[in-house]
Amino acid sequence: EVTETSKKSIVTFSEIHHFLLSDTIITETQKRISNAFDVFDHESNKTVDVREIGTIIRSLGCFPSEADLHDIIAELEEEEPTGFVRYEKFLPTMTKILLERKFRPITEDLLLQAFEVLDQQKKGHLEPEELTKYLTQEGEPFTQEEMDEMLSAAVDPDKNVILYKDFVSMMTFDDTR
Amino acid sequence: MGCGVTKTSEFNRKFDKAMKAAVLIQRWYRQYAARMEVRRRYTWNIFQSMEYADLQDQIKLYNFLGYLMDNFTPSKNEVCRDAEWERYFSYNNITVPDIYSGPRLTFPLDMDQAAHLVEAFKNKQLHSRYVLQLLLETWKLLRVLPNINRVSTCHSKEITICGDLHGQLEDLLLIFYKNGMPSLEKPYVFNGDYVDRGKDSIEILLILFAFLLVFPGDVYLNRGNHEDHIINLRYGFTKEVLNKYKLHGKRILKLLQKIFSWLPLVTVIDQRVLIVHGGISDTTDLALIARVDRHRVSRTNGKSHRILSSALSSDSEPESSEFTDTGNDEWKQILDLLWSDPMSHDGCIPNEVRGGGCYWGPDVTEGFLNRHNLQLIIRSHECKQDGYEFCHNRKVLTLFSASNYYEVGSNRGAFVRLGPDLVPYFVQYQATSMTRGLSFPQNVKRTEHTALKVLREQLFVHKSDLLSAFQEIDKENTGLICLNDWASAIERVLHLDLPWRVLHPQLVSSTTDGKLDYHGWFRDLHIEQTMLETLYRHRSTLETIFRIVDTDNSGLITFEDFRQTLKLLSAYLKMEISDEVINELVISTDTNNDGSIDIDEFMEAFRLVDKSRLERGKSLEYT
Fold first, then answer.
1. Under CATH, which architecture does the A4-99 domain have?
2. Hey, are the CB atoms on B27 and A106 less than 8 Å from each other?
3. Which helix (H) or strand (E) holds A93?
4. For the whole prediction, is pTM greater than 0.80?
5. Which one is predicted more confidently, B187 or B80?
6. What residues form DSSP beta bridges with B397?
7. Which end of chain B is more exposed for a tag (fewer CB within 10 A), N or C?
8. Whole-angstrom Cα distance, residue B594 to residue B281?
């Protein structure tokens, strides 16, 4: 039978547990951020080029849009923009992003649905020109380089079409190790 | 139905849905590409830190190997005059057999013969007679060239500049294909590091020297830090020549040693652009550079060699005043030119990583350019992913022409063209048919795979040190260690500046409750049984030493030579080994009892030495 006292102690215990856990989580999180930052800190002086921020954030598992990144970078830049972002500024911002789980991952089925939407005639595949048109003209358009890179992995070399179902499962499988 | 990450829109128009789908795909792909980029980046870091770490160890041995060289090469009673050397290098008594199907050169060379050489090297080897003849002519020419090449872009000539080639013939062929071969209308500057690492170093040299002989006013060669016979011992060029030219390889190498010392140091275009292999320091003075006797300035004038030599000679005489401070200055000036790297902070600090030259900052560039009335420094020496890279406010350009330097797909190569306006025009390339078939993610994975393989070998090689480090942390001997401790232990032991926590998923296959079973982990590193840990670490050094001592390249060294080597090594390492122990070691090394020592027995001997020292609690670290 759960009495008031025991309920309280359960609550207190779980609060402490949560506090301890989150402290560990924060330290672990900050270590992850520090390591990802270091990969791009070429001069080993705790700064990275502002143009690498997007890559760093994404490498930590987040899926921001270009607009999201634009806002984050505006927050991270110095009063007088130097082209560099300092670690002291990056750490708290990134910790918050990770702990709040902003910019959550896009799952395999969501991705598949998106391709299916683009495949208006329900062919089961997309022509390279079709996909190119959508991705370089709509939304947050790809550069030609981004488009070429994606096509090199996506286009079936024999049929010259994008079998998006296979593509999605192949790409999402790659991630798991 | 719609994309779950945004609010369901009231509008159900196909257009709106399609746009949302596009945004989602873009958002997802950019994340994927970012993760690929990170993997590519740390793969790059792995290769770079391994390269520099390796070089660092080697430089520490540089002086010792030099001393060993002087004791074991026939030049002990060295002839002083060039005429006598020309007799030694004589090719006249070398006959070329009828079945030889390679190029037969006639001197003086002409353009057709040079072009024919380029074609022939795709599948043929030049006979040693012609090699020696070509090298002799090159040596004669280089001896009259100044330290500073001066080039002009007048007559609307565009000058093509190439960076490091490192024995990668395919890249040179690609450059000639894209840009045309050197000629009166097409002048070239080659910025050093023609040899080592790649497998066709001698062919590249022969091609460049041939064009130099045919167009001496339109081909300019700078010396690189790899145009050095001691570096060549370690990084593959010596081995390549001895393998390709079994009979005359040593003679060819000796001649090349002289040629390298006679290569010009820098090139200046229109008195405005400096081309040098490594870079500059805050004391670099072109007027001084112009005056040095470049072929005489070498490590033998350097301070450290002097100390070593007097420590080891039993009847030491006081060194002559020949080795004055001037000798030291000149050596430093040349070292700076060939070994320095730019850095982003102001200042000038010694380059500890490379063991020679310095790191120089934007302020040093500014000062140097102003003092000498120049506008741009073009240098090489460092591999760049895109083949070239600007720094110091676009006043310094790094140019690297060996594509796929670390591994297939690791980087592009580049060359640059300068016209009278001195505005650089870049051409990039990647010389291998294999990359063309691969998609971008496949390329990244392939390069990553090689980098990780190399890294795993390094981890395995340091197994005993790592094990001690782990056991120090795991005091209760549970056999388990958490990832944080794993990472810090590795950092301490390996001294490789790498993001170990980012790498750990690639290096550690499984953990239980966030802890790693480190004994099991070593077993899983999948290294072949034959690769013994202690040997492998020093294998390349030991091979180098053996090759020096084996003066007739027979694959065998005498007991006496081996004894000498051990004595020198022990003096250098400040170890106390009695003659008795050395004698015992020598005899026990000849395991097949044939009266001489081959390379396997040689390696085995050092493993024994290493183990016993380990048992005494010391490590075989060279000071």
1. Orthogonal Bundle (1.10)
2. yes
3. helix A87-99
4. no
5. B187
6. B378, B390
7. C
8. 54
